[in-house]
Write a structure and sequence with these properties.
Length: about 325
Amino acid sequence: MPEKKHPRRGSLAYAPRKRAAKQTPRVRSWPQEDEPIPLGFAGYKAGMTHVFMIDDHPGRSTEGQEINVPVTVLEVPPVRICAVRVYGKDIEGEKALSEVWADDLSSDLSRSVRLPKNYDRQAAFENTEKLVEEGRAEDIVVIFHTQPGLSSVPKRKPELLELKIGGDSVEEKWEYCQDLLGKEVKFSEVFNEGNYADVFSITKGKGFEGPVKRWGVKVQTRKVQQARRHTGVLSPWRPSRIMRTVPMSGQEGYHQRMEYNKRILKVGEDGEEVTPEGGFLRYGEVKNDYVLLKGSVPGPTKRMVFFRKPMRKKEGVPTSPPTITYIDTSSQQGG
């Protein structure tokens, strides 16, 4: 009989498991949208609670009944559009050709980027207009920054991110971005209740961990001469090298992760509606606009979470606003 082999312990899907470059997640791909609209938003994770809602998913055994659903509460203060960037084609791909920055920039933005002292906005605007008219512009995006001072996150340094704009033509995007420059954008202008979104975040950092916790390898028997919580053998004689697939110690957590199709159950403006008695643990009160997202979200509290329009849209799922009958706001402080 052939020898039985156990399945591999630990997925190589996210290898190498190294620390994220920075705490702000990076988005590498964007969906296609016909109308000019921002394709993403940013918020801060406050905590989790649960709600009672009417199950509106067709075909389920609980359809039409009241069910208990775990939700993540995220505070989403308005973001400010501070610049418009034009991309053109280059030998190696896309290349930034021009930028137009807003006039009245926030003083807190100097904590994230060095602001120019003598900036000719009119000249930058004319140069960008010329690039669009000549057809040298391949794509137009906006640069926005968050406003953590409006939330319960204890910091003033904003995150600076690039945001894709939907639309069919560059001229259409340019006209839309001119009106958007220097203004605030709210979450309700990008997403609606019942919509789906892809979320990006940096997971909790756990530091240096061994192969048992990091890869799930088996703890060896008590008669092992050396350590028990280690890999039995690193490599054979041939090839005489350690393969990349061997589970070893290293960084655990603080990785960028993405989850597809998280449903937005509720978008509100009064944070008192979802703030539990005494506030969320390690966060406090929700002071600004908020979002109830079905299920969990990667990362600890206070960490920035980026929302993106869904890349893999589901079929046969409800997209209308759900009916929420109860939101749990009982104290989370414990006895």
